[in-house]
Specification:
Elements: H1 11-20, H2 25-36, H3 51-66
Helix pairs in contact: 1-2
Length: about 70
Amino acid sequence: MNNVNYAAMSDRELKRYILTHRDDREAFYAYIDRRHSRPRKVTVQLDDPDWQEKIISAIRVQLKSVN
C-alpha cells in the first residue's frame, strides 16, 4: 500500500511523480482517471457571436488544471 496522496498533487506534480516512479500503477491510474473525468471538447456554433470568448475560457480552464 502506498501512502502518497495523489489527490493533493497538481496534474503537473502527479505527472512528474509518475515519470520518476514508473512502477507505481496506483499513481498512473489516478492520473488517467483524473484526466478522463474532465470534459475535453468545446462545442461552438458557427453563428455564435460569443465563440471567441468561449474558446478563451476553455483555454483558461485547461491552463488552470495543468498548474
